[in-house]
């Protein structure tokens, strides 16, 4: 069975022009030359100092690239930032307000939608989430066409909270909700293991800090799923050790699960972590490898 949820709060930027690939290649963390029909890339735009600014999915759609990104003010900031670097490149940016983003995920049974064995609807793009197979598929399409198409194909509509309850135990961040702009480092948030950056591509903005963090073993924190017991704190709450020392920050929450950016020394010594009256129990997914 396929579940789907409309990802309200996201939007779509379009990039066209003969230089569209070369333009992005010098800016983002992944290798844009690897884009091809049916294969999306998860990538990030960093500051010149190597700190996180935006993350997004890149999808080839004929003679343009679709950028599945956070919406609202975050979309406008991303668009304005990209526009500053266009200069003389043949690259034209636009916004597609009619296109909406949907997440599709299954329950483990064989299903035409989650197996990707059927064609997408006219005017829409269906693609596998490139981070983890368990994250299923994503659909970009006009909302008035996508919802009946999904229902006609046997999918069940769920809430955004249901989607959070699926992704959070897997340790998957949700943009600026879990990754602090102008502060976060990619390797703290799984971009390496989740196929969000390419170590063999040429230079891009912020590459030097990212490479130095990896090769010098400077990752001191990781975003990890945590089980919550004894109450539900607010998102953004501080996490403490039994000694009252800072151990990190709790970000998105769904039910008795949350995502927290935690100090690795506290995690490795299995310190009893709390946020207010709530106990946090880190659960490390198989895809995460903690540095020594």
Q: What does this molecule look like?
A:
This protein has two domains: 2-170, Gyrase A, domain 2 (2-Layer Sandwich), CATH 3.30.1360.120; 220-292, Elongation Factor Tu (Ef-tu), domain 3. The longest helix is centred in the N-terminal third of the chain and has 13 residues, at 72-84. The chain is globular and about 55 Å long. Helix content is 17%, strand content 33%. The strands form three sheets. The protein has a six-stranded antiparallel β-sheet with strand order 12-13-14-11-16-15. It has a five-stranded mixed β-sheet with strand order 8-9-7-1-10, sandwiched between helices. Strands 3-4-5-2-6 form a five-stranded antiparallel β-sheet, covered by helices on one side. The mean pLDDT is 92. The protein is an alpha+beta fold and 292 residues long.
Which regions have little confidence, pLDDT < 50, spanning 5+ residues? none
Structural class per helix/strand content? alpha+beta
Placed side by side, the strands forming the largest sheet appear as 12-13-14-11-16-15
Major sheet: 6 strands, antiparallel
The counted number of beta strands is 16
